[in-house]
User: What shape does this take?
Amino acid sequence: MPKPCRTRGPISKKKEKYYFSEVRKMKKLVLVLAIALIAAPSFGAVTMTLTQVGDSNVYNVNYATSDANLPRAFALTVSVAGGGKISAVTPTMTGQCTEGTRGYGIFPGTIDINGVTGFVNSYGSPVAPSGDPGAAGTGLGTSTVVLEMGSLYVDNNTPAASGILCTVTIDCNGATVNQTLSAALESTYRGGVVMEDGDQPAVTIADATYTGCVPVVTECYAGMADYAQWVDAGKPNCWCYVRQCKGDADGLKQGDAKTGYYYVGTGDLTILTGAWKVLNPPFGPGLAGTQGCADFDHLKQGDAKTGYYRVGTGDLTILTTNWKVLEPTFGPGVAPTCLPGNRQP
Assistant: This one.
């Protein structure tokens, strides 16, 4: 480090020590300021998020800024990907801001102003007409809408620095996969987001995923008294067949129209034979595939010392009781009364 200038003779050791001490302090201060500048947020930035309302198919379009220079207008392209469509867009407010209601209620693309009186006939909708530039093929009932929303206020009735612009409703439209809801600035014709002073800020937008179009797969045996036994058996769907508890492991009908049909026969015996006294871990491999379908009594047999198995004499008794019992009109049939009876092979 260079020594301090000597304009009035030699500097004492005490003064020199003080000088270098102050230089070190300044360096530390500069370092602290540099770190603060790196961590500080960028002024004029706007953050937008799409958030689901509860478990519904409705999403809030949110905005937020930390700048005193508030957004004056928003132009967004909102789309849903995955086969769904947008069925509704509902603004948080309509018209000019008041002391009690503030937001973005002016919709430039659809507002109707009386040419004689100058009064507003209708504020319209945030959704831009499909015939407008940059909005061709869009609109409610399609996968994309272009939104145009601005603010109008007097005095201090400005919109809040953060809030909800509007809500967007998704219609699955027959789709059975997750839907991705996304938003992008429409800057080509409408300027994207414009601040009060005319600036266009940096904008970050977070997309969202709607899972409500995917059918909910429920466990067929849920709620049954012996649910724990079903879990121990590997949750076989066949337990939900209407005759499984009576020896029908495969859920299939055998026989022919001439001699009659039956549900408990050789196919079921084959499954039972393959599962016969197969020990649960750690004494054995446990049941696999359709073997659990031969557990007709839904009970575990054996003991802790030699091991447990699920297919044994109790299941064989059920199978032999209903062995080849013919269905009407050739015989009494095996009643389809096993619960819950909500699955078929």
Summary: DSSP finds four helices and 16 strands in the chain. Residues 46-210 form a domain with the Immunoglobulin-like fold (CATH 2.60.40.680).
